[in-house]
Write a structure and sequence with these properties.
This protein has 3 domains: about 190 residues, Beta-Lactamase; about 160 residues, Histidine kinase-like ATPase, C-terminal domain (Heat Shock Protein 90), CATH 3.30.565; about 120 residues, Response regulator (Rossmann fold, 3-Layer(aba) Sandwich), CATH 3.40.50. It is built from 16 helices and 20 strands. The strands form 5 sheets. It has a 6-stranded antiparallel beta sheet with strand order 3-2-1-6-5-4. Strands 8-10-11-13-12 form a 5-stranded mixed beta sheet. A 5-stranded parallel beta sheet has the order 15-14-16-19-20, with helices on both faces. The chain is extended.
């Protein structure tokens, strides 16, 4: 007995068997990998066989927006006739796994509008046909069947170019598979809607975090600016009282340094801080931090250590990793208002594939693990979910900025590591920091900077911020250097022909209308021996991605003081 709609002359039993095989392959594919496109392809191939069609497609209806083609077979575009369209479409399909069509003045658009089968056996003269794009294979006959869920259309099956045209028999052959196609298309649409809702939720969380970040930054910087502006006004009214001026200047310096530290914490959170990574032995950092913790922790907090006897080497910025330990310890102190135990441990750990499955973000491999454990109040799951967000804090007003753990997270990830937190209310908190194992030997500790020496060389200073340009030029001239100033890349390039022989270019890396790299390229083409020092308020990563030029170009992050600037300038000029 043949299926309803079996083409004349077809073997009914063979058709039944083929249908069962197609449905079985489709279901198996979907259950094994959940791939709607691959599963729909099984159905489409069987549809083409049953209807003796040259090519076809199955598309899901993205309500009000597009027909999303999830499976297509037999369609070969002419890449020469409309190459731009062809290449763009192929690229989109490779990247996304689907193509969207949003023009519906055509035959498949008629299916969507009417939610009924459309048969066209003379496409060229059919008023419902809106034509086909250049490069599309010839379309002589067409059969489009709506994929329905109840009365709602969720997609379309379209086939084309059957010799002799289409009849109700081919429609009925497709109808045998429409129910399965409806299940797959509906599943795809539900997953897509769930993904969109999840993305909206994620964006809402991001906006909430950004709002908290902006509010926290404004609060902290307004406090610091109040101290700085008040100090300036006190100095202006101090008259000849040198002692009062000195005290006010000291207060201004403290506030400015706190502003600098706040900026560094924000950069650490954003993973844009300038880190000086070196190969280190982790126990040395712990020992150095312990000396500082003795002064910061109250007597009722006992510090214990359990250090690996022979820890593997890793790479980090020792000073920043020490600050990570201090921030974690201070966080633990606040979680133990009645005192308790703080335990710092190091260990060598090999993470296998099973461990990596349990701990998101930690790849299989060898790690040096630094753990900080407290016996404090612990945190709820809700708090743990937000613990690394900037300015998120459970402490009372004035007791914490909410930047400490954000800074910890940023430094660890910028060092190539991963941080994991375990906590439960009433049972304390544990932070595990995973730092990848490094080969080699411990890097030597950099020598202490020497006092800045004077110079006589010629320097071109390119800086768009007037206040920074003024103080930088003042510091350089005060140390004996000849300085030519430029307020923009264009102004600097205008000096290219008339400028005296230069020894050093000091250029801001990011400026309106150009960059320090562009200036350096132009001047180096005239003087390949020119030394280059880039300065920037951005992180060093900006230099690394800017394809910096020059003989061993150097980088100095802002903010800098005159003494730091002069030390760096001398080092660049004296480098061999």
């Amino acid at each position: 007995m043949s299926l309803p709609g079996t083409p004349a002359g077809a073997d009914g039993e063979g058709a039944d068997a083929a249908l069962l095989v197609a449905l079985s392959e489709c279901l198996t594919s979907f259950l094994e990998n959940g791939d709607h496109g691959a599963s729909l392809k099984y159905l489409l191939r069987h549809v083409l066989e049953r209807t003796e069609s040259e090519y076809g497609f199955i598309g899901a209806w993205i309500t009000g927006r597009a027909l999303r083609v999830l499976a297509h077979e037999g369609i070969v575009w002419d890449a020469v006739e409309n190459r731009a369209f062809y290449e763009a479409a192929i690229q989109r399909y490779r990247e996304q796994g689907y193509l969207d069509f949003d023009r519906f003045g055509n035959l498949f658009g008629e299916v969507l509008r009417t939610r009924r089968t459309v048969i066209s056996n003379d496409r060229e003269h059919d008023p419902r046909s809106g034509g086909i794009p250049p490069g599309h294979p010839p379309l002589t006959t067409f059969l489009g069947v709506p994929i329905l869920r109840g009365t709602e259309i969720v997609g379309v099956i379209g086939v084309a170019n059957r010799k002799g045209g289409y009849t109700g028999a081919e429609e009925r052959a497709i109808q045998a598979l429409v129910r399965q196609a409806a299940v797959l298309c509906d599943s795809y649409l539900q997953r897509r809607r769930a993904a969109e809702l999840e993305e909206h939720f994620r964006q809402a969380q991001k906006l909430e975090s950004i709002g908290r970040l902006a509010g926290g930054v404004a609060h902290d910087f307004n406090n610091l600016l109040t101290a700085i502006l008040s100090g300036v006004e006190f100095i202006e009214g101090a008259g000849d009282d040198a002692r009062a001026r000195t005290a006010d200047l000291a207060d201004i310096r403290v506030a400015a340094e706190r502003a600098r530290d706040l900026t560094q914490q924000l950069l650490a959170f954003a993973r844009r801080q300038v880190l000086e990574l070196r190969v280190i032995e982790i126990n040395t950092v712990v020992a150095s931090a312990q000396r500082l913790l003795r002064r910061l922790l109250p007597e009722d907090v006992t510090v214990e250590t359990a250090l690996a006897p022979s820890p593997w080497l890793t790479s980090a910025d020792p000073s920043q990793l020490e600050q990570v330990l201090v921030n974690l310890a201070l966080n633990a102190r606040d979680a133990m208002p009645g005192g308790g135990t703080l335990r710092i441990a190091t260990d060598n750990v090999t993470v296998d594939a099973a461990d990596a499955e349990r701990h998101v973000g930690v790849d299989p491999g060898d790690y040096v693990v630094l753990s900080v454990v407290d016996s404090g109040e612990g945190m709820s799951k809700e708090v743990v979910a937000h613990v690394f967000e900037p300015f998120f804090t459970t402490k009372s007003v004035g007791k914490g900025t909410g930047l400490g753990l954000a800074m910890v997270h940023g430094v660890v990830h910028q060092s190539g590591g991963h941080i994991r937190v375990e906590s439960e209310l009433g049972r304390g908190t544990t932070f595990h920091i995973y730092l990848p194992r490094r080969a080699g030997t411990v890097d030597a500790v950099p020598a202490e900077p020497r006092s800045a020496r004077r110079g006589h060389e010629r320097v071109l200073l390119v800086e768009d911020e007037a206040a920074v340009r003024a103080v930088t030029a003042r510091a350089l001239r005060g140390a004996g250097y000849g300085v030519t100033e430029a307020a923009s890349p264009a102004e600097a390039l205008a000096l290219l022909d008339g400028a005296p022989e230069l020894d050093l270019l000091v250029a801001d890396l990011v400026m309106p209308g150009g960059s320090g790299v562009q200036v350096a390229e132009a001047f180096l083409s005239r003087n390949p021996r020119l030394r280059v020092l880039y300065v920037s308020g951005h992180a060093r990563q900006v230099l690394d991605t800017a394809t910096a030029v020059g003989p061993s170009p150097e980088f100095l992050p802002k903010p800098y003081t005159p003494s730091v600037l002069l030390e760096k300038v001398r080092a660049v000029l004296d480098a061999s």
